[in-house]
Amino acid sequence: VGRLPKDAIGIEIDADTVEGHVSPETLADPITTLRLAVAFLELVDAVAADRDQDLVFRGLQVVDKCTAVFAHVNLPDAGRQCAVEALRYLGSAARAPRGIHARASAVREARAKLPRGYKALAFVGGTRRLLDASTRADGYPAATLSIRATPIRVGGKEPTVTLESAVEERTFTLRVAKDRAKELAKHLYAQVDIEAMVYRADDGLIESGHLVDFMPLEEGDPIEAWSAFVRDGFRGSTH
Amino acid sequence: MDAIDPDLLPFRALIDTGVALRAFFSEEPDFAADPRTPSCVAFVRAMSTSGRTCVMATITMAEALRYDGERQFPRYRGFEIGAFDDVAARAFGEKLSDAGLKQVQAETGGKRRTVSIDALIVATAVRYRVECIVSLDENDMPKVAELAGLPTRAPAHYFGRQTKLL
Predict the structure, then answer these.
(1) CB under 8 Å to B94, separation ≥6 — which residues?
(2) Does the predicted model carry a pTM greater than 0.80?
(3) Which residues contact B155 (CB under 8 A, 6 or more apart)?
(4) Are B148 and B123 in contact (CB under 8 A)?
(5) A229/B74 CB distance under 8 A
(6) CA A62, CA A85: separation in Å to the nearest integer?
């Protein structure tokens, strides 16, 4: 598979070593491969449902050069975020929300049954990521994020907020406590200052994280407020 | 006095400490006596009224918090605080090499501490995706910013040329 379409979500089966070769004709266990593909798509679908995303899968492609099985989605950005979140669930020892947990288990089960010497990759928004079904208790290193952003969606059974910011490449989604989600919903499409803990992928994009706090912007003359702030600081120096 | 030309203004700019302090505290005796202060006031006001964004690095803000660290930053549209986070650190590593900064020091005769602080501000500017740095520093800052591919402008750069009416 060369350049991946951005709306492709699916899996690729490859050999673990450079000597190995996998193609649709030589694939050792097509049933497990198809099960893994279905399980992964169902997991992404469950994540989308949890986020109230209207993600629709269409088409199915099985592509030569290793063995790739993928579908297309109607909302590429949302699909990518759901797939990334799905991978986080697969890699996390923490229990996933009801509905997602069972789907993640099915992916792990299918992944474990792949023949020895095979590796599985996930297609996520135009890139491939190792579909590692072994749980990781520690997770990726987290970093603090303190930026101005605009919430464009808040909701879900396990609430999340999707934000856009002039200082981040793409929109990103964070988990948020229910009480804060309610508050944040009052500020949809308005700028707020946020503090969050985030996990970034190798390409620098935010993969996931949780919102620690947010602060709405104030109304009024910003120059006046900033002048008072700076002036008071200097006055303090004379005491 | 000439007026700021809104068409020349950047959409996002990082304002350096000297510009921020003069813009927000122009009546302070030293700033009031500085002929550059009116340009700082005019630039920041024009950015605000034109719906543009001024970013201020947390290092700059430390200057205003030195004597009273308990206060909350004002949070208003058009003015953002730029924190030095992991993304800024990555920008620093990628664009501001030790060799490059030493070269700047050699060229300008700047102190290591000053150049290092400028580098932190420049990395913050890169991270917060500004178009340029607006600074009164004509020595170290322009050269450090150049390492990161960012232009540095004085506030007076944005004064438009007025045509005299007959």
Answers:
(1) none
(2) no
(3) B19, B36, B39, B40, B42, B43, B44, B134, B136
(4) yes
(5) yes
(6) 24
Over residues A62-79, the mean pLDDT reads 86
Hunting for tokens 């590692």 — which residue is that? A132
Centre a 10 Å sphere on the Cβ of residue A50 and count the other Cβ atoms it contains.
Answer: 21
Closest residue by Cα to residue A103 from A130, A81, A85, A78 = A85
pLDDT digits 0-9 by tens, A128-147 = 788 766 644 444 467 899 99
Q: Is the pLDDT of residue B26 over 90?
A: yes
Residues 198-227 of A with CB under 8 A from B: 200, 204, 215-218, 220, 222-223, 225-227
- pLDDT at site B68: 65
CA distance B1 to chain A (A): 21
Which residue shows structure tokens 């989600």?
A: A181
Q: Does A194 touch chain B (CB under 8 A)?
A: no
Count of all residues that appear for chain B in the document = 166
Question: Which residues of chain B does A239 touch, with a Cβ-Cβ cutoff of 8 Å?
Answer: 67
Assess contact for A118 and A79: CB atoms under 8 A: no
Which range among A5-19, A86-100, B7-21 shows the weakest confidence by mean pLDDT? A86-100
Contact A50, A99 (CB under 8 A): yes
Of the listed ranges A65-74, A147-156, B127-136, B147-156, the one predicted with least confidence? A65-74
Q: Is any Cβ of chain B less than 8 angstroms from the Cβ of A189?
A: no
Q: A146, A148, A191: best mutation site toward chain B, by most B Cβ within 10 Å?
A: A148
How do strand A160-164 and strand A172-175 relate by DSSP bridges? antiparallel
